[in-house]
Amino acid sequence: MKKKYFILIVSIIIFFVIAYFIPIPTNTMCGESPLCWYKFGVYCYEYDAESGGNTHLGGNIHIYSKVGGFTEYLGLKDIDCNR
Known about the structure:
Order of helices and strands: HEEEEH
Oligomer: single chain
Structural class: alpha+beta
Number of helices: 2
């Protein structure tokens, strides 16, 4: 029984680490900018392999503005692109 709780707790911790540190692209756009889920919020991003140190995932995603918070991240509220 203790092994099941350990596996459950480790799985939850791994989920939160992935959800916080790895940007997950969505199929939604704000104007011409694609959106991604990152750090429990919704952000605009662009692919830019030449932008240097201010990038994520090996230098190919540059996150530049937050357009939604935790409720938009969960899908409970529509994303306001005019933020």
